[in-house]
Design a protein that fits this description.
With 636 residues, the chain is of the alpha/beta class. Helix content is 63%, strand content 9%. The chain has a six-stranded mixed β-sheet, sandwiched between helices. A four-stranded antiparallel β-sheet has the order 2-1-4-5, covered by helices on one side.
């Protein structure tokens, strides 16, 4: 039903939580994933502390080395003590720093990769659990970019926090303590003041810069979305000779991205200049005080070298503080977007404690007083009731926009009928009392219920409902894989012989074998290497391979020529034998053998009966039949 499809596309996707969550809340969401590896986290922190203890010990040992150098010429201790003792210790400390760092990364790599994998998998599974409404409205390019940035952000966040920020904090605390104890509080106050100024300046400027980075991310996602959308619709672009138009659209986004990145780069230069100024002032103040101490005799030359080494060791990681802070903010933003996707509420969800649908033997399907709308302003179905007896075929015909395909979507639970049917109070009071038990609190607009084998499909699991139904849709989209893969998708554990049997039943085996690679032929992006009829026959073969108790054929032969249509109709009738089948069709010649034919118009069933009974009634169906017969005669 094209009208229903267009309407659902016009609806906005359910709103995401308003505004970005705080950085601390985002980190709080990440911690449980890492906490599964708490022993690795603890071991990594121990290695971090060990690396920093070794690193801070290097300037202390360097001081001793220089002070020992003040020996008289020819003193044998100069050759024995200095090179052998202190130099070996100096090299050992350097080696320990690197060894502890590598051990930290080795131990924690499993935690980082494990958390990334788990979050990415949960996001992927959650996206598949969201309703059709979300997927009709999504922007694939931007969404995949958000997921990509979120997964990459996990590794960066862990790397920057555990490998940069935590070690720097530990080192700063140790250096300040050593300066205050070995010398006087003045050294610690100068270092502390410089560090505070440095951090405050960096955070303030980085916060100011963040809007440029966020802007750049938005334009990056927009450009990516336009590029992906244009490439996916390659044929449409060619049909209308709009290559230059698409290039201009893409270039507009690239130009906006360029401007945002230039602003970000300019602000980065301001940040780096300010940081170097603060570092220079702090370093000069410390060296001036240390030099004065050497001149006054309060400090040794080794003390001066130690102070200088400490300052260099502190400011080297601080040089990257702006970059680290910016990256952390950026990664938190990307991670937040991915968590926002994970938090998006499922419009269609299983009821608590829902059991699987029981389908022992043939099953019947019933629609009871179903009202439905994709949005309140326009109702699609009006009090639709009908039954497909077990093993029988019911056909639904009518003009586009009458609500035919919406029936298939509701049966498949792409949407659920809601709990506030727009009926009068009197008609609502007349509903059967057992319906109250089936009132499961599902979102949606409308009312009524749909039953398979006597079970309300809202009270059973979605997976079991969809296992019981096979569908051949009007618009067939295939995976960019082989023909065999796409047919086997109906039942992934099927053997090659079963795949071939399904292909023969769908009258596509001969075509497949005529290609150079046979069943290993690649079908291309969305199956674009195949014609419309070939794609539809693959879809029919896939559904025949699934072999479910309920079948839906939604304009299943619309892309086929008359000869293939007649051949496949025979196979469809054979496949539908003993199965409960719903056939949605425009061409009435394809449904003349149906157990019952429903004629829909504006969301209502206006006629029902067999083909011959409807012709005898001289109503809407009879007029449609006459028009199509006239058109067929003119074509011949």
């Amino acid at each position: 039903m094209r009208g229903g499809r267009d309407l659902s596309r016009s609806l906005p996707v359910a709103e995401a939580p308003s505004g970005p969550r705080s950085d601390w809340r985002t980190l709080g969401r990440l911690l449980p994933y890492l906490w599964q590896y708490k022993w690795r986290v603890a071991a990594a922190l121990l290695f971090v502390i060990g690396a920093k203890v070794a690193n801070v010990s290097v300037p202390l040992l360097l001081k001793e080395l220089i002070d020992r150098m003040t020996l008289k010429p020819g003193d044998p201790a100069a050759l024995l003590v200095v090179p052998v003792g202190l130099l070996l210790a100096y090299g050992a400390l350097r080696l320990m720093t690197s060894a502890f760092t590598e051990l930290r990364e080795l131990v924690f790599a499993k935690a980082t990769q494990g958390a990334s994998r788990q979050i990415a998998l949960q996001t992927f599974e959650h996206l598949h659990s969201l309703s059709l409404r979300f997927h009709l409205e999504r922007q694939t390019g931007g969404m995949t970019r958000d997921i990509e940035r979120g997964v990459r952000g996990i590794e960066s966040l862990v790397s920057f926090s555990l490998y940069s920020i935590v070690p720097t904090i530990i080192e700063v605390a140790m250096v300040l303590s050593i300066l205050a104890v070995k010398f006087d509080a003045g050294f610690a106050w100068i270092t502390g003041a410089a560090l505070v100024c440095y951090v405050v300046f960096t955070v303030t400027v980085t916060e100011w810069r963040t809007k440029f980075r966020r802007e750049a991310n938005l334009y990056d996602s927009a450009a990516h979305t336009k590029a992906i959308d244009s490439l996916l619709n390659y044929e449409t672009v060619k049909y209308f000779n709009n290559e230059e138009f698409e290039a201009r659209r893409y270039d507009e986004s690239l130009e906006q991205l360029r401007r945002s990145r230039l602003k970000a780069q300019t602000s980065l230069s301001v940040l780096n200049t300010g940081q170097q100024l603060i570092i220079a002032i702090g370093l000069v103040a410390m060296l001036w005080r240390a030099t004065q101490g050497v001149v006054d005799g309060r400090l040794t030359l080794g003390d001066l070298v130690m102070v200088n080494a400490f300052m260099i060791q502190l400011y080297i990681p601080l040089n990257f503080l702006g970059v680290i802070y910016r990256e952390i903010k950026q990664n938190l933003t990307g991670l937040d977007k991915m968590f926002t996707l994970m938090d998006r509420e499922r419009e269609v969800a299983d009821a608590p404690g829902a059991e699987a649908l029981h389908t022992n033997g043939p099953v019947d399907v019933r629609f009871e007083h179903v009202d439905f709308a994709y949005e309140p302003a326009r109702q699609i179905l009006h009090d639709v009731s009908f039954e497909i007896p077990a093993g029988k075929t019911v056909a639904v015909v009518g003009p586009s926009g009458s609500g035919k395909s919406t029936l298939a979507r509701l049966l498949y639970r792409f949407y659920d009928v809601g709990n506030a049917p727009p009926r009068s109070a009197a008609s609502h009071a007349a509903l059967p009392p057992e319906w109250a038990a089936a009132d499961l609190g599902r979102p949606g607009i409308g009312g009524g219920r749909i039953l398979i084998a006597g079970q309300d499909i809202r009270s059973v699991t979605q997976a079991s409902v969809r296992r019981a139904i096979g569908i051949v849709p009007q618009d067939t989209v295939l995976f960019n894989d082989t023909v065999a893969y796409n047919i086997r998708y109906g039942r992934p554990d099927a053997t090659d012989a079963e795949v071939e049997q399904a292909a023969r039943a769908a009258h596509i085996h001969d075509f497949i074998m005529s290609t150079p690679r046979g069943y290993a032929t690649m079908v291309g992006e969305r199956g674009l290497k195949l014609s419309g009829g070939e794609k539809q026959r693959v879809a029919i073969a896939r559904t025949l391979l699934k072999d479910p108790p309920v079948l839906i054929f939604d304009e299943a032969t619309s892309a086929l020529d008359s000869a293939n249509e007649r051949a496949i109709q025979a196979e469809i009738r054979s496949a539908a034998r003993g199965k409960t089948t719903l056939v949605i069709a425009h061409r009435l010649s394809t449904v003349v053998d149906a157990h019952e034919i429903l004629v829909m118009e504006a969301g209502r069933i206006i006629e029902r009966g067999t083909h011959f009974a409807l012709l005898a009634a001289h109503g809407r169906y009879a007029r449609m039949w006459a028009l199509q017969q006239s058109a067929d005669n003119q074509d011949t």
